[in-house]
Structure formats: C-alpha cells, structure tokens
Amino acid sequence: MVTACSAVASLAALPRAVRAGAQVEEPLADAVRTALSAAIAERAPPQPPFDSVEARLSYLRWLGDMSERLKKRTSDHVARLEFLQTLWYESVRARHDPALMLGLVQVESNFRKYAISAAGARGYAQVMPFWARLIGDGDDSKLFRTQVNLRFGCVILRHYLELEAGDLYMALGRYNGSRGRPEYPMAVLGAKRAWEHASA
After folding, report:
1. How much is the mean pLDDT over the chain?
2. Distance between CA atoms of 117 and 17, rounded to whole angstroms?
3. For residue range 18-73, what is the model confidence (pLDDT) as tens digits?
4. Of 113, 133, 136, 175, whose CB count within 10 A is highest?
5. What is the pLDDT of residue 1?
6. Taking Cα atoms as reference points, which of 64, 76, 85, 192 lies closest to residue 147?
C-alpha cells in the first residue's frame, strides 16, 4: 500500500514530469461562459487586502514558510515570492485552500512556469489552450504569465467543483481529464498535505 508520504516522495523524484491530462473541452452555456470570463478578466495585481494586523501577519508567516519549502525547487527569491504571492491571492479569490493549489501545481508542472504537456497544456497549472478561446481573449501565449495561468487554473477548478456539487475528488479528476479515476486526485491530495501550513 502506497502512503501519502511515499507518493509525494515519488513525485518529488520526478523533477521534469508533467502530469497534465487532456482536459476535455465541453460546451459552456452562455451564462457560464460570461461568469468564467468575468472571473478571469479582473486585472488587479495580487496584493491581498487584510481585515486586521493579525490576518496580515498570518499571511506573512505563510509566505515565509512556503518560500522556505519551495527554495529547493525555485532558487530565485524574487520569482519564488512572485509565484507564492500570486498563488495565495488567486487561491483565496477562488475560495481554494492555497495548499490545494500548491499540490495541484506540483503534480501538474512540478512548479515549472513554461511547462508544456504532450496534450498542449501550459504553465504552472497546465491550462489547456482552448480555455483562452472559451473564456479569455484567445491569446494562449498569455497562459505562461504567472497571474493569468494561476487565475485560469483556480477559476477552472472552481467551475469543476460547482459542476461536481463540491466533490473535490471528482472535480480534480475532471481538471485532469481523468474523471472517476483515482490516480490524479490522490496525487494532488497527497501533495497538498506536504504544503499545509499550521496557522499558529
């Protein structure tokens, strides 16, 4: 039996692997397309607002902890902080746990900004180019921009969660194009555990 720790360790041993599947292009109702387009259109930079000093300090502790953990994979300090700040902002904006999105990015691209899968998925969150046509401006080269890629990934996963009535396992399978099969959801959930942060 494979434990979550050994699954995460085996993923870490494959630094060049890209696990993206072939996300399925599905017809979207006009209302869904409009809502998804609006969700990705906002141009705000990833500067999170905080309701209290404690909330800001909690975020800064998270940022420091994640930066230290990610140092082995992304040695450039500025690039690492830009990625983490953007991932946190886009995750919270889409109502995802940042640990989940870190796990997804680890499994999808192993934190490689310019990763391209055999199916043509791009960037950190391995977004398929058809999404740029369906809900973006059609320019799939923008999927290599950190904020664009992470925003698409977060919005698409939120869309799939809504389609699956909140079932994360099924939504992850749909994200990967392997709905109903356990390998991908279990890999992401295993990786997520390695990125969880104690909010002390």
Report:
1. 85
2. 9
3. 555 666 667 666 766 777 777 677 666 667 789 999 999 999 999 999 999 999 99
4. 175
5. 40
6. 85
- Which residue matches tokens 């055999």? 118
Q: Please, what's the b/e burial string for 78-112 (b: 16 or more CB within 10 A of its CB; e: otherwise)?
A: eebbebbbbbbbbbbbbebebbbbbbbbbbbbbbb
Beta strands in the chain (DSSP E): none
Q: Please give the Cα distance from 129 to 173 (Å, whole number).
A: 18
User: CB–CB of 86/46 below 8 Å?
Assistant: yes
Rounded distance between C-alpha atoms, residue 105 and residue 103, angstroms: 6
Cα→Cα distances 155→77, 131, 151, Å: 27, 11, 6
Structure tokens at 113: 């900004």
The structure tokens 């194009």 sit at: 177
147/157 Cα distance (integer angstroms): 15
Domain boundaries, the chain: 49-194
Task: Give the global pTM.
Answer: 0.82
Helical H runs in 42-120?
53-70, 77-93, 98-109
What's residue 45's pLDDT?
63
Q: How many CB atoms lie within 10 A of CB 143?
A: 23
